[in-house]
Amino acid sequence: MDLAPVIQFLSQTVPFDGLPRAALEQCAGRIEIAYASRRDKRIEFDSDNPCLYVIASGVFELRDNDGELLARLDSHQCFGFRALLTGEQTDAEIHIIEDGLLYLIPLATFDDLRHRHREFERFFNRQHGQRIRLGVRYDNHRHTNAMRLSKVMSAKVVSCGGDTSVAEAARLMSQHRISCLPVTAEGQLVGILTDRDLRNRVLAKAVDPEVAVKQVMTASPRCLTSQETWFDAQLLMTRFNIHHLPITEQGQLKGLVTSNDLMRQLDSDPALIIKQLNRCQDQEQLVQVMDGVPNLVKSLVAAEVSAEQVGRLLTAISDRLTERLIALAQQTLGEAPMDWCWLAFGSQARMDQVIGSDQDNGLLLAGEPNESQRRYFLALAESVCIGLDRCGFVLCKGEIMAMNPKWCRSLQGWQQQFRHWMSEPEPKAVMHSSIFFDIRGVAGDIELARRLQRQVLEQAQHSEFFLAYLAQNCVSRRPPLGFFRQWVLDKDGEQKAGVDLKHRGLAIINDIGRLYALACGSDEVETPKRLRAAMEAGLLTRKDALNLADALEFIRAQRLDNQHRQWLAGDRISNYLEPKSLSQLVRHQLKDAFVVLGQAQDGVKLKFGKQL
């Protein structure tokens, strides 16, 4: 059998596309090919010889034992991995809708790939753990989110040099029917000229069309590499409201992705809410747009987008909402009397917001304000905070908000506050102030936030007693497991008993990530990136860092699924999960995740025990 077509097919199928060439060749050599005919109606699984089914062609339907349609599967999708991971067959059935070919990968080969390639194993573990209720479904939307940009981008890109005249550049764009023109110098991307640039920087300002493109282009545009994903591109373009994204390798232009390219890959576009927010002219319109966010989350959960990606998308929306609320407030208040930066703390800073997240924010002012200036910024902050509350990001019960005068400060004032926290640490004060060490600039002069963060990192890294108190905070709450791995249940506001996924799970991992990031001087704010930084700095072993990252994603996914169920049932959204609502396998996996947290806390005690 000629293996070349099989290897080529696997190289375009997630997660095989991340395997080295040698592994693909080895896998292809062990594959069996089966023909599926509609006359057979459905796939008959061989329980004695389980295998992974990769669809080469044809259309199949996944139905539960009541005949309800769960998913439609086609080329480049997989099923059958539940049996390989657990030894248990699914109750669901695979119905053959259109004749097709299946690549059958035997259990031994599947296990070999899992053991030798961690990302391959993590992919299927997450697929199984996050959609245990469907057993074997692999949704096309997830395939889309993981698709590398090399498969989406236009590789044949028309470009020009910086000395090309604007008139000639416009002729090139018209001739090739394109809406942008990358600008290069010896193959290196130096800028981009778009239709918007021509309108706003040339026509609107009556600029001579014979001027050089380099005088009107967007210099140093945002870009990604071809190995990054469809989701990375969508998030970046959504966050910064851009429609053309150059793809580069070490600065060399390799391709181009447009918003239309992304739209063709998915029927629904989460960026639509961002676009609608940009057009809103008052808070009432913003509220109406944000009313659609729960439906967006519903579609993302149904498409099995990862919990990390959902959090980043929701945060991108809340960032843009904040910027729009600020712009609307300034239409009434006028321009700010000095430079400023709107700060996000907590989950918004870490980019892991969920439905019902409260707001934690502050204002950073370039200088010490006089009374008139202070009134301006407090009025601005009150308008924004009230607007965020109306749009679903509820007011912070602890009043960590920019409209609280305590958290509307000058750069010097913020620096003094952080110095106080670190130079005179007290356990209770450290616990309440730890959220401020997750800090990110959202709007205004972002460089002000970076200056503050650099000062905080420099001092924190050398403040042993402060790090010790942070470590004490990390171990003050234990995961919800007692002796013999029995559940420890808490009661929510309605006195319902459940596992507190936020405070006994996610908060512990976030605390550990924050501690290690400050200890190694990393400016990362997202917890997965902090764990990686700690690993690279030698504070965490690779195994411990990856285990914590896996536990974080799994617990996030369980919280997201649980909140999705609560929302569908019309219940109050909370972080409390009733273990009995889960299958036995997922309960076991959740306990394993909490065991990882307990072991990580023991590691914190070992590293910082001398100061505790």
UniProtKB/TrEMBL annotation:
It holds the Pfam family DUF294. Residues 52-113 form the Cyclic nucleotide-binding domain. Residues 153-210, 217-272 form the CBS domain. Coiled coil: none annotated. The keyword Methyltransferase does not apply. One of its GO terms (molecular function) is [protein-PII] uridylyltransferase activity. Keywords: CBS domain. PANTHER family: CBS DOMAIN-CONTAINING PROTEIN, CBS DOMAIN-CONTAINING PROTEIN CBSX3, MITOCHONDRIAL. This is Cyclic nucleotide-binding protein. It comes from Ferrimonas sediminum. The lineage of its organism: Bacteria, Pseudomonadati, Pseudomonadota, Gammaproteobacteria, Alteromonadales.
